[in-house]
Amino acid sequence: MQDASKHYINGQWVASIDGREMAVENPSTEQKIATITLGGVADADAAVAAAKAAFPAWAATDPLDRIAALERLMEVYKGQAEDMAQAISFEMGAPIALARTAQVGAGAGHLKNTIRTAKGFAFERPLGDHAPCDMILYEPVGVCALITPWNWPMNQVMLKVVPALAAGCTMVLKPAEQAPLSAVLLAEMIDAAGFPPGVFNLVNGDGAGVGAHLTAHPDVNMVSFTGSTRAGVAISKAAADTVKRVSLELGGKGANIIFADADEKAVTRGVRHCFNNSGQSCNAPTRMLVERSIYDHAIETARAVAEKTEVGPADIEGRQIGPVVSETQFNKIQYLIKRGIDEHATLIAGGLERPDGLNRGHFVRPTIFADVTPEMTIWKEEIFGPVLTMTPFDSEEEAIALANDTPYGLTNYVQTADKSRARRLARGLRSGMVEMNGKFGAPGTPFGGMKQSGTGREGGVWGLEEFLEVKAVTDWGRSWQRFF
Ligand code: ADP
Description:
Elements (H helix, E strand, L loop, with lengths): L6 E3 L2 E3 L5 E7 L4 E8 L2 H19 L3 H17 L1 H12 L3 H24 L4 E5 L2 E10 L2 E5 L5 H15 L2 E5 L6 H13 L6 E3 L4 H10 L5 E5 L2 H12 L4 E5 L5 E4 L7 H10 L11 E5 L3 H14 L18 H16 L3 E4 L17 E4 L6 H4 L6 E7 L2 H8 L7 E5 L3 H10 L4 E4 L17 E2 L4 H6 L2 E6 L11
Parallel strand pairs: 7-8, 7-10, 8-9, 10-11, 12-13, 12-17, 13-16, 15-16, 17-18
Antiparallel strand pairs: 1-2, 3-4, 5-6, 6-20, 11-19, 14-15
Helix pairs in contact: 1-7, 2-4, 2-5, 2-6, 3-4, 3-6, 4-5, 7-8, 9-10
This protein binds adenosine-5'-diphosphate (ADP).
């Protein structure tokens, strides 16, 4: 792989102008695996200048040419899938099997699906049958700052970079400083796929440095951010002075509502889903709400699943869960587990400290608390670790009220055999997504949240439109037809 201490600006790998070194660590071993440069203001400025200069020509390209470039990228990405899996597994601790399948696969899926979406998108279309000479042009927003977290690196990077490229935007990607290696590899792939210089730029850096500078930069037209609600608030404020478009995908505290008529695997599936990727998913079903008649049984099932969940280093082939990404995250999770104990939730599995036999690495014990109530800290705060809470409910109304009792609104889950009830719940839950009976959304499903889970949607046609401006033109004439 390319020397990770360099930035990719204007089609070249360049040394930092004003950055400082940072060691990237393997969360399974706590050993240094690479050195990156946290860029400075001058690095960020150089990348924005390159993106700004490249914008007019790239924006004017035929969408079919942009799609062709993305198809080349798809081929390169497929050819280096194993390298990408290794990079992700190394940098953020996803077990290698998970990295090869879900982590790398998510990136490939978004590429494939965005290509399909762009092919079917009418970038120029009439206002409607009533006004055939009034034209609507979908045009790229401009220079975009794309800021991503470390938990699903290629998922989040691809959800931004690919639709931005398809739309005709130019961009500066600032990946999470904890997990920059996959983004460096992607930049190499974009280079190999032959995009014009300046269209895609990568600057490594931290939030306070490059991140904050990009989000306030007068030449950046849009910020697309995925990460914590804390950072999302800071970014919105920084972007306000120059009226940037801001798209935010933030935290979550998803409820998983399990009725007595749910299928027999519902509890097991819910626990495993919560622990997947060591609980580091914004859409994790972290609050399991269980109808009281099956609550005790559900606790026993959940305990058994937690006790059987293996925890171990990311390079071991298997279905274990890996470490969490950093010491900071480990400490935050430990603090929240301690709060759960101190506030008298019933600890039924896991708890404080590392699992037995693991003395190094940021490993967290798969933990479940029962009898969790809305006053408790572990009900309110996003934990971002393998920690599940369980709470009983007596009625459908109570289940909806409990699920909605959070500032977040990303994904909620419902397990029931009763379709009419499922639909009532789907309508009553305040979240951007509701998943029923273990069925994931199909490719092209809009991903995003209500309330403090964010603004905007990624994926599918919605994810493409995020990067497009709508221009209305009168007296265009009737020679408008141009479908792809
Ligand atoms: P934190 O862990 O500090 O709350 P996140 O996990 O939300 O931050 O970080 C996600 C991404 O956002 C990372 O790339 C990080 O560097 C970046 N980031 C953090 N804070 C800011 C900020 N104030 N402005 C811009 N980017 C930020």
